[in-house]
Amino acid sequence: MPNMSLKKVPMPEQNPEARTRNFLEVALGYTGEMAKEEAQRCLNCKHKPCMQGCPVNVNIPGFIEAVAAGDFEKAYHIIKNTNSLPAICGRVCPQETQCEKFCVRGIKGESVGIGRLERFVADWYMSNREQKKGSIARNGRKVAVVGSGPAGLTCAGDLAKMGYEVTIFEAFHTPGGVLMYGIPEFRLPKALVQKEIDYLKQLGVEIKTNMVIGKVLSLNDLMNEGYEAIFIGTGAGLPNFMGIPGENLNGVYSANEFLTRVNLMKAYKFPETDTPVKVGRNVAVVGGGNVAMDAARCAKRLGAENVYIIYRRSEAEMPARLEEVHHAKEEGIIFKLLSNPVRIIGTDDGWVKGIECIEMELGEPDSSGRRRPVPKAGTEHVIDVETVIIAIGQSPNPLISSTTPDLKTNKWGCIVIDENTCATSKEGVFAGGDAVTGAATVILAMGAGKKAAVAIDNYLKAKPNKIKAAE
Amino acid sequence: MFQIVRKEILNPSIKLMEIEAPYVARKAEPGQFIILRVDEDGERIPLTIADFDRDKGTVTIIFQEVGKTTKLLGSLNEGESILDFVGPLGKPSHLDGVKSAAVIGGGLGTAIAYPQAKKLHSLGARVDSVIGFRNKDLIILEEEMSKVSNRLFVTTDDGSNGTKGFVTDILKRLLEEGNRYDVVIAIGPLVMMKAVSNLTREYGIKTIVSMNPVMIDGTGMCGGCRVTVGGNVKFACVDGPDFDGHQVDFDEAMRRQLMYRNEEKISLEEHECRLRGEKYA
Ligand SMILES: Cc1cc2nc3c(=O)[nH]c(=O)nc-3n(C[C@H](O)[C@H](O)[C@H](O)COP(=O)(O)OP(=O)(O)OC[C@H]3O[C@@H](n4cnc5c(N)ncnc54)[C@H](O)[C@@H]3O)c2cc1C
Ligand SMILES: Cc1cc2nc3c(=O)[nH]c(=O)nc-3n(C[C@H](O)[C@H](O)[C@H](O)COP(=O)(O)OP(=O)(O)OC[C@H]3O[C@@H](n4cnc5c(N)ncnc54)[C@H](O)[C@@H]3O)c2cc1C
Ligand code: FES
Question: Cβ separation of A173 and B44 shorter than 8 Å?
Fold first, then answer.
């Protein structure tokens, strides 16, 4: 008999008051009992509507059935079949626009907490079982993976399991991509990401940090070093600015810089750590996505009293995960919706003292299908702030494409690939994740890494094996 | 880990280190820099590649101890290692085709200017170099610079050695005497680069300056290093660090340099407390 409660089993969380003073994880996860209770809300629909919302086709009813039966290990293996990073995806996927959007229980009441269950299963496995690696026969063929975000990590792991000698080249001193430098500790504990990285090492993947490809080595250099195929998963790391007056005043950050200082360089422990970050009493964050929510919530934790989210559309159009918006509100972040900055105002000696905004209203739908915001004349007003964080999006970094003339990109700087083979315009070079799609999601990047691993395997199987031939 | 194979003390606050970093040495060109992190809690700081040896696989850095990280780095000895060392970053200087150049180095800037003077000299250009320091104890690389310059002028602010005055005084004299250059390369404190640029503007001589904003990644992903050049925003780590001195907004750069002044003080005090075995309050 299914559990017919209209609401999800609540997730234990740190209370908002306490958590705005620490960087510890906000959502604490289900216990086994809670997970079973929530799993029993699943009706195990024959046509599995939830699965059509999952970019990597996780057998959702299948794993939930196992959870309901208390077989968490089986549930884990069902998820792992198609999702390499369940502990991460369970925490950061926008479930409300994916699997949970199609859940029949959501028609009347709340959908089944699929993300919460995925997270529970992955966490349970991590603390109760060893990740199995088995013994893999090595085939001696070298593949290079550039970038160690979810796309690169997944591609590397899958190729290593197929027997390839995989080396990851990462520009930063720490692997993990956005999972390490962007998404804050309180939403995605770094120890968890580190576990995934350690697992890859166990699989025999070598990780070389401090390797800015395009500068330290070119793609051709990698080929000359004997890598027979290359996967590019360099993400979308180039910060966009608004181009409004005052953006170079002291106190204006890109979200990338602000979050890198806080998460990767651990500025929240300054001066115990050496990298500082400046947060005023009043902080404005411009944008409405996950990046904006993360920046705002970090600013709050670093001591800001008033943190404003300034977003030009309405809440309905906000691209951030529902849970993040909800948590941000609980933490006292002030939402200035339908509002757009026109300039940043500085003191005589060049520090931010305010941000001038104009009110917006929604007009006709634009090319993205969302109603276009248009300014309302005469509604300009100034909000007093000392810090401004710009979180209006990122584009792919041109470091590699600008040093690889035969690598085709489109007008947004995204690498162009063949949808089916993940192949770029350059022989032996494949790509996926944000570097191809522009800023998207962890699950899409992971899915792209998986698909590329299969494509690379097919490519190399069809290509004469130089090493074998030489023997 | 990147080993320090040689350490030299050039003056009371400036040290030289030769670091084993074969990948960096292989591609390094004058004008480029590296970013290093001394230890796990350390900050990432940029330093210019002062020299490199492709055969030995080493890169030389010369740095002034101005704060926590440079002092910590300076306290390491030969045989010890640095945790992270990445490069070469930034665009190499464009020196091809230059027949005559004035290379101006202010203080530590002399170390950054040296590889450029060396490259110009090796390309057969006529090089007049002017290097300036606060006093004679702070002079560095005089011998090295003289080897790669047709004429070398040394100034000290207090006249304790060489000509008393600023590097701009000498450059002005050279220009007034009718010397002309394809390019003037000025590297040093922002005020000095600004003064040189103002001077050469009058003569219409192309002037290249090397910007040193605060950086983190050095790959274009944070935008912290932005400078305004000719009204456009540039990221110094990927678009520079060399820019046209006549186009740079120096006043903005000077202001931005002060962004973390308080925090830098705190970091240094904390470091010194720790060295004394005290707890930082
Ligand atoms: C603050 C923030 C919050 C987010 N929140 C969510 C969320 O809640 N849910 C969600 O699904 N998505 C979220 N996203 C988006 C998601 O993180 C990305 O879509 C995803 O990480 C893309 O993965 P990737 O592997 O393509 O690239 P990335 O994760 O960007 O990794 C790319 C890696 O390549 C490295 N690299 C770049 N250039 C080079 C080079 N030349 N040589 C060597 N290495 C290089 C980079 O240093 C980086 O480590 C968020 C993004 C940000 C910034
Ligand atoms: C491209 C470039 C090349 C450079 N080359 C050299 C060099 O060859 N030799 C040398 O001695 N110095 C060089 N510098 C400056 C050097 O990076 C700073 O002196 C160093 O970061 C100071 O760190 P600190 O912790 O010791 O001092 P702090 O007390 O932290 O800072 C002292 C001053 O250094 C600057 N600074 C601080 N942190 C950074 C940072 N992360 N990035 C850039 N500047 C910072 C600030 O202007 C600050 O006012 C270069 C800077 C750049 C951008
Ligand atoms: S240092 Fe981050 S973009 Fe230049």
Answer: yes
Instruction: For residue B54, give the 3-state DSSP assignment.
Output: coil
Distance (Å) from CA A183 to ligand 1 centroid: 9
Q: How many angstroms separate the CA atoms of A41 and B248, rounded?
A: 64
Q: Ligand 3 pocket, B133 CB below 6 A?
A: no
Tell which CATH architecture fits domain B100-257. 3-Layer(aba) Sandwich (3.40)
Instruction: Report whether pLDDT(B70) > 80.
Output: yes
pLDDT at B236: 96
Q: How far is the CA of A241 from the centre of ligand 3 (A)?
A: 14
The reply to whether ligand 3 has any atom less than 6 angstroms from the CB of B195 is: no
Ligand nearest to the CA of B33: 2
- The angle formed by the CA atoms of residues B223, B226 and B230, to the nearest 5 degrees, is 140
Q: What are phi and psi of A9, to 5 degrees?
A: -60, 125
Of B43, B233, B260, Cβ closest to residue A241: B233
User: Are A415 and A216 in contact, with CB atoms under 8 Å apart?
Assistant: no
Interacting residues of B109 by C-beta distance below 8 A, sequence separation 6+:
B186, B187, B188, B189, B192, B210
What letter would DSSP give residue A263? I
pLDDT at A105 over 60: yes
Instruction: Judge: domain B2-89, CATH 3.30.70.360.
Output: no
Q: What is the pLDDT of residues B219-271, one digit of tens each?
A: 999 999 999 999 999 999 999 999 999 999 999 999 999 999 888 888 888 88
Distance CA A404, CA A423 (A): 15
Atom of ligand 2 nearest to the CA of A275: 41
Average pLDDT over residues A9-14: 94
Q: Do A237 and B219 touch (CB under 8 A)?
A: yes
Given this model, what pLDDT does residue B261 score? 87
For the CA of B224, the nearest ligand: 3
- The model's pTM is 0.93
A194-214 burial, b if ≥16 CB within 10 A, otherwise e?
eebbebbeebbbebebbbbbb
Supply the residue whose CA is at minimum distance from atom 3 of ligand 3. B220
Q: What is the pLDDT of residue A468?
A: 55
- CA A259 to chain centroid: 13
Cβ contact A237–B83 (<8 Å): no
Cβ contact (<8 Å) for A261 and B216?
yes
Nearest-by-CA chain A residue for B32: A215
Which atom belonging to ligand 3 lies closest to the Cα atom of B225? Answer: 4
The ipTM estimated for the assembled molecules is: 0.92
H helices present in chain B, as ranges: 22-27, 68-74, 109-122, 142-147, 167-176, 190-203, 236-239, 250-257, 261-275
Domain boundaries, chain B: 2-89, 100-257
Taking each helix axis from N to C end, the angle separating A60-68 and A72-80, rounded to the nearest 10 degrees, works out to 170
* Nearest CA-CA partner of A149 in A421, A404, A435: A435
The closest-lying atom of ligand 2 relative to the alpha carbon of residue B112 is 8
pLDDT given for residue B271 in this prediction: 85
Residues B199 and A12: their CA atoms lie apart, in Å, by 67
Report the pLDDT value the prediction gives residue A133, as an integer from 0 to 100: 67
Cβ contacts (< 8 Å) between A269 and chain B: which residues? 41
